[in-house]
Amino acid sequence: VLSNHGKLLCVIMKMLKGKRVIVTGASSGIGEQMAYHLARMGSHILITARTEVKLQKVSTQCRELGAASIHYVSGSMENMSPQSCLLGGLDMLILNHVGSTHFGYFKGDIEHPRKLLEINVLSYVAMTVSALPMLKESRGSVVAVSSLAGKVGNPFTVPYSTTKFALDGFFSSLRQMLIVENANVSITLCVLGYINTGKAAMKAVSHVICNKPAPKEECALEIIKSGALRQRELHYPYISVTIPLILRDWVPDFLDALTRNIMDIEKVERT
Ligand SMILES: NC(=O)C1=CN([C@@H]2O[C@H](COP(=O)(O)OP(=O)(O)OC[C@H]3O[C@@H](n4cnc5c(N)ncnc54)[C@H](OP(=O)(O)O)[C@@H]3O)[C@@H](O)[C@H]2O)C=CC1
Ligand SMILES: C[C@H](CCC(=O)NCCS(=O)(=O)O)[C@H]1CC[C@H]2[C@@H]3C(=O)C[C@@H]4C[C@H](O)CC[C@]4(C)[C@H]3CC[C@]12C
Fold first, then answer.
1. What is the CATH classification number for the domain harbouring 106?
2. What's the domain count of the chain?
3. Which of 35, 106, 190, 200 can bridge 234 by disulfide, Cβ–Cβ 3.0-4.6 Å?
4. What is the pLDDT of residue 270?
5. CA-nearest residue, atom 21 of ligand 1
């Protein structure tokens, strides 16, 4: 007998079987896991990233897991033509890629936020603008992967937070525009907490952040589910994202204290 969770998963799998899905930033981390979930669901998948050899490995794994089809486009999102990814229709666009950034105090290097805005924001805008005609035709979905750092300020992710806050501004406003236009395209903003992707960069922060990271596999599935169910926002992990959001609006001073509590400030100053 299937649990309610199991029944919902079956529904999601049927919704995505045969659907055409793009996942950006899918050569590793959460994006890689999203590609594998979609493959198990029998979707037609296109994945993007810069590292072709990694894309080839992920593609091979997706084929073995049952993808209806799998293609990849390698290149940096700073200068990728969105059209190169948009061939023959689209049902779901999952924007997930992220530029590398430093976890520490922002020392005023303006070029870093400028580059990060290109990778983390303007390429999301360009991909969305190019995909909209196809998504309007298919009554599809856009899923933008953001962060708690895009809803609540953090002292050690200033440039990164700048880009993630911008995603909220763009996609929340675009959602309202599409509603006014009666265009049946859903916009889902995924507000994520700390996720365990096992990468070196994550290890670099693990000694500073006190809470335990959530599993990338479950995170990836929750992102896909939120897009398929056309949710406005996903908060994952639910508690560790929702509590700071409540505190931000109602008890900001306590949030400042909480930030100091979940981060070993002194350790950051030495990194
Ligand atoms: N991990 C976490 O704790 C959290 C992650 N998030 C968000 O989740 C998403 C995925 O993060 P995560 O899986 O940790 O990231 P990873 O660093 O593991 O993966 C990032 C992906 O983006 C690709 N990428 C990086 N730079 C570029 C570029 N310039 N052009 C095109 N592709 C690029 C990388 O591939 P390649 O290097 O081959 O290009 C890789 O596939 C991001 O949007 C991130 O902000 C949000 C909150 C917490
Ligand atoms: C420091 C992380 C970014 C690491 C990076 O640059 N990755 C690419 C490395 S590569 O060049 O080798 O490819 C940050 C990425 C996600 C951040 C976390 C997040 O977004 C959720 C929380 C938000 C909160 O405001 C602060 C703590 C977070 C856990 C935050 C910490 C920094 C990241 C892990």
1. 3.40.50.720
2. 1
3. 190
4. 56
5. 25
